[in-house]
Amino acid sequence: MKTGIHPENYRLVAFRDMSNGDTFINRSTVHTRETEVIDGVEYPLVKLEITSSSHPFYTGKMKLVDTAGRVDKFMSRYQKHYDNKKK
């Protein structure tokens, strides 16, 4: 393995799933501005839209995860196409 190509600043980071509130800690080099205290230790915080704890493939629950209104935007854009296809 080549030396000097891997980052040196790996540290423990808290990742929070914003759809269900689960938080897990993992090592990462990601830069964050927010922090969170877990069990008396302060960690940098990364907010995620979806993780394995909320993804339908892993949970087996088919629920719609749409935090930014993307589905509504898509449906309004292509409603005319769907109406023509039904005729």
TrEMBL record:
One GO location term (cellular component): ribonucleoprotein complex
GO MF annotation: an example: structural constituent of ribosome
Q: Name one GO biological process term.
A: translation
Per UniProt, the keywords (alphabetical) are: Ribonucleoprotein, Ribosomal protein
- Signal sequence range: none
Q: Which InterPro entries match?
A: Ribosomal_bL28/bL31-like_sf, Ribosomal_bL31, Ribosomal_bL31_B, Ribosomal_bL31_sf
* HAMAP family assigned: Ribosomal_bL31_2 (MF_00502)
Tell me its family.
Belongs to the bacterial ribosomal protein bL31 family. Type B subfamily.
Summarize the subunit comment.
Part of the 50S ribosomal subunit.
NCBIfam families assigned to the protein according to its UniProt record, in alphabetical order: L31, PRK01678.1
Q: What is the name of this protein?
A: Large ribosomal subunit protein bL31B
